[in-house]
Specification:
Helix content is 8%, strand content 43%. With 168 residues, the chain is mainly beta.
Length: 168
């Protein structure tokens, strides 16, 4: 049993599948997980940009995260989900949906178990990684939500779609 006075603080992350890889992201940036619904396409956007969904009356951009990371496209199955994220944008948080092949659930790891990202050999390009953790004898890539999209990408999508946060 760990001594509570010396135990490392815990990280809580949402684990989900992108192809054959299990990845995780800080739960604090995850707003909710949805079943995929109708997506309205918007012309002349990057090919990983799928369009917008109606989230309680607001248009929220959705991207194919697997395609964005160069891992092919998310296969649409009954397990496919949209993870709604709060991403830092131009001075405010922007909502963004990312397609995931499936969602595994919330995992907890000690902060000292988060290792630096591998310099090579990872399925996800290193600039998008925060680190790597071992969960159930498997390595899980931890994505850095603040690096998934550039500021230009976020603001470009935000200018094309009304922000949920703008309408409060």
């Amino acid at each position: 049993m760990m001594d509570p006075h010396t135990a490392s603080p815990a990280l809580h992350m949402l684990a989900f599948r992108l192809g054959d890889e299990t990845v995780a992201m800080d739960i604090l940036c995850v707003r909710e997980v949805l079943d995929p619904g109708d997506i309205t396409r918007i012309p002349q956007m990057p090919d990983y940009f799928l369009g917008v969904i109606n989230l309680r009356g607001y248009a929220v951009p959705v991207i194919d995260l697997r395609h964005k990371l160069g891992m092919g496209r998310v296969a649409h199955t009954p397990a496919t989900r949209i993870v709604i994220l709060d991403l830092p944008g131009a001075g405010e948080l922007q909502l963004m949906g990312v397609f995931a092949d499936s969602v595994r659930g919330v995992v907890e790891v000690a902060t000292d178990q988060l290792l630096p990202p591998p310099s090579m050999g990872a399925a996800v390009p290193q600039p998008y990684l925060r680190g790597i953790v071992r969960i159930d004898n498997r390595f899980v890539l931890v994505l850095d939500h603040e690096r998934l999209l550039t500021m230009d990408e976020i603001t470009g999508m935000a200018l094309s779609t009304p922000s949920l946060l703008d309408r409060r």
